[in-house]
Amino acid sequence: MGQVAWKGLFLSLFDYKTEKYVIAKNKKVGILYRVVQLSILAYLVGWVFIVKKGYQDTDTSLQSSVITKLKGVAFTNTSELGERLWDVADYVIPPQGENVFFVMTNLIVTPNQRQATCPESASIPDALCYQDQDCPAGEAVVAGNGVRTGRCLKDRDSIRGTCEILAWCPVEKRSKPKKPLLANAENFTVYIKNSVRFPKFKFSKVNVLATDNKSYLKSCRYSTEHPYCPIFVLGNIVRWAGSDFQEMALEGGVIGIQIEWNCDLDKAPSECNPHYSFSRLDNKFVEKTISSGYNFRFAKYYQDAEGVDYRTLIKAYGIRFDVMVNGKGAFFCDLVLLYLIKKSNFYRGKKYEEVKSSSRKSLSSPTLNGNQSPDQLGGL
Predict the structure, then answer these.
(1) pLDDT digits (tens, 9 = 90+) for 282-308
(2) Closest CA to 108 of 201, 171, 190
(3) Strands (E), the chain
(4) pTM of the entire predicted model
(5) Residue 39 pLDDT more than 60?
(6) Dist. CA 377–CA 320, nearest whole Å
(7) Strand 74-78 with 63-71, pairing
């Protein structure tokens, strides 16, 4: 029995098989079959080719550079600083003008600090003490401003005090203004120059209007009617992001500026336009949190006539702007050039290299490179 089975299996290897077609004379089956065919055809033509433009080659490796420059002045009058005028050198960090920049809108100033001994802030739990033993010398105060000296400083008739520390004294005040000091920053403007390039298609574009009018950038303001004016009012940016500038300026926050370049490069270069969107990126809209806002500290140092080092400590609250750029470029695909036009043989001959044999020199033609457009090779 086993030998018979193996023999039949072996002989079946030499059988020739052919397909058999059955034509069903059934209108329902025929209609269903054609509906399926038409659905597939409609999907390919309507969705893949027309909507998604599947006949195009795409480039998502967008190369981009962003340059920012702010303008505006503000005036303040405080007990720590007196009357003071603030310009871009004072409130913009960093000053180089990158794709991420910070605009200071509120601040706590602690002037004339010098390295000395003084009581730690009573608002820091680790600095509280009842006796000198609670302040071991040489240990840093957790989340504090300096290193303990070993003394517990108390007010008169007080049971509890704070540790004495070696630090920049006096230590920073903990209360901030109830209104933003640089409230006028709402009217400041920022120039955002964005240059993009699609390397695959050697196509470049910039978001600034090509004009010889030197006063254009001094007078224009961005709007949907003027998409190639890259001058934005800070108050408008925050409003477009769904927030109130004065409220945000008190404790700070983060705003995202998104620039989209989705370009159909089969069309004229003027049809490749930037599209802007704005959003708030910090946790303002989350439930109440102790980490809301955006702030950091920096200092300005100087020496007196005797050579003693002093500094003015500034805790800066403000709005950080993140400029993010993305997009893609699409161009006529080789599929059309190589197979769907009358001169397809000509284009294939230019694109592919033909090798006759290893013993003879290959017969080749120059490839169709990115510097040659279809128009240079012949009409379609």
Answers:
(1) 876 555 566 678 999 999 999 999 999
(2) 171
(3) 56-59, 63-71, 74-78, 82-86, 92-93, 100-119, 128-129, 147-153, 161-169, 189-198, 203-206, 231-233, 253-264, 275-280, 295-303, 309-332
(4) 0.73
(5) yes
(6) 50
(7) unpaired
